[in-house]
Amino acid sequence: AGLAHVENMSKAKPEHFVSGTLRRIMHPSRMDRDYVEKKCTPLMLAAYQGRASEARQLLDDDGVQVNASRVSKMLDVNEATERGCTALAMAAQEGHVDVAELLLQHGCNVDTASLLAAVKNGHAEVVELLLSRGADIDGVDIKGETGLMKSVYCANPQVVKLLLEQRASFTATDKMNRTPLMAAAVAADAIALKALLEVNAVVDTQRASLPKPNHLLNGN
Fold first, then answer.
1. Domains in the chain: ranges and CATH
2. Record's superkingdom (predicted)?
């Protein structure tokens, strides 16, 4: 079913302009209640749940008379929650590459938060997609951590390898002045340490006292 025509836009609730299929997306039993409390739009919920066909319906304006700011806002691919989370970030977090691709096709901004969400959860395919669309490979979060650092901390070797292949900086430092190599030492991640050493990452021995890479790699 297509999207329903809206007559009273100023008072309309989401259920009044989405189809029966889309209403099912919004049912509390089909999503985390936490997302409901964050006042997500139907598009965000479709992205979070990986419902590409429903997201496509929402992005197709043929069935909606978008003549009110409230509805325009609810169908905006770049609309964010109170915490700044967008539909793309939700799709990236859950690894829904098809939904992420759809959102990008409809003009969604490629932001660092979405890339880091995909990195943190080990979704290499989404990471690769976002990088191909211009995501900043060395963008940082509030801790100053880059995607490479986060992939090390989260023990995602496939993503670590991908980011290194895409020339992510291995000399960048976070707000604690740690490099990705130091992050790998802190996480005791021998696989990440080996990958970083293979691209000639440099250890600053004058920094905080951390386990030595060779000690971890040799298993001593």
1. 137-220 (1.25.40.20)
2. Eukaryota
φ and ψ at residue 54, rounded to 5 degrees: -70, -40
* Measured distance CA(91)–CA(101) in Å, rounded: 10
Helices (H), 6-135: 14-17, 20-25, 33-37, 42-49, 52-59, 69-74, 87-94, 97-105, 112-120, 124-132
**Distance in angstroms (rounded) separating the CA atoms of residues 86 and 76:** 10
The conformation of residue 194, written as its DSSP 8-state character, comes to H
* Residues with pLDDT less than 70, the chain: 1-39, 61-75, 200-220
Q: Which tokens sit at 189?
A: 């991640």
Question: What pLDDT shows up at residue 175?
Answer: 94
